[in-house]
Design brief:
alpha/beta, binds ribulose-5-phosphate, binds fe (ii) ion, Aldolase_TIM
């Protein structure tokens, strides 16, 4: 696939949403044109922060969210929670290979539950974890910050890593999405897309936009992202 016909998907990270009004926040960002709900799961063990789990994913489904939910598991161990997120209605389940004792088994567990499987690479994690599992991944997620917190700055070296991941995907012949997570803003998304990403997580850039009282507060930031992507 080349840049011209790659479809770009926007995945706002609800890490930066107002948790007290989560259903409403998700409804508004999807109404503004977002494609995927990025759902950050942190365990205060694999990463130094604690967030939300499968019950909240299930609550979003019950609330009526039908868009894909992209569960980014920053937890160790991973396998038990994989089952819980399958039950809770996740669409994608991604995990960090260092957090699984048996990466191949965890990937198979996700697919056997009917979900799409992905591996997440921290800034210092080598892409060689992909060597023997390309046929078992639907998503490769490159972290462009160290995991654990929203609002951090994009690490520029990730652009080269994106180019390398894109080469691997194109050479494999498999349909695999290439997602980027951390510090994605309106002013760098085009450069990130040119380096090979096709799925863009953005938390603070989306949820810090607009005024709380404005029901259309996310329209202009989503439109600005799309305008930038149209230049790629
Ligand atoms: O996985 C994450 C952090 O570990 C988040 O998805 C990410 O940081 C998004 O937030 P921002 O766009 O504000 O950087
Ligand atoms: Fe994330």
């Amino acid at each position: 696939m080349n840049d011209a016909n790659r479809d770009f998907l926007l995945a706002p990270s609800i890490l930066s949403a107002d948790f007290a009004r989560l259903g409403e926040e998700v409804d508004q960002v999807l109404a503004a044109g977002a494609d995927i709900v990025h759902f950050d799961v942190m365990d205060n063990h694999y990463v130094p922060n604690l967030t939300i789990g499968p019950m909240v994913c299930q609550a979003l489904r019950k609330h009526g969210v039908t868009a894909p939910i992209d569960a980014h598991l920053m937890v160790k161990p991973v396998d038990r929670l994989i089952g819980d997120f399958i039950e809770a209605g996740a669409t994608y389940i991604t995990f960090h290979p260092e957090a699984s004792e048996h990466v191949d088994r965890s990937l198979q567990l996700i697919r056997s539950g009917g979900c799409k499987a992905g591996l997440v690479f921290n800034p210092a994690t080598p892409l060689s974890y992909l060597d023997y599992v390309m046929d078992k991944v639907d998503m490769i997620l490159l972290m462009s910050v160290n995991p654990g917190f929203g609002g951090q700055a994009f690490i520029p070296g990730t652009l080269d890593k994106l180019r390398e991941a894109r080469r691997r995907i194109d050479a494999s012949g498999y349909e695999i999405r290439l997602e980027i997570d951390g510090g994605v803003k309106v002013d760098n998304i085009a450069e990130i897309a040119r380096a090979g990403a096709d799925t863009f997580v953005a938390g603070s850039a989306v949820f810090n936009a607009g005024r709380d009282s404005d029901p259309n507060r996310y329209d202009s930031v989503i439109r600005a992202f799309r305008e930038q992507l149209a230049t790629v």
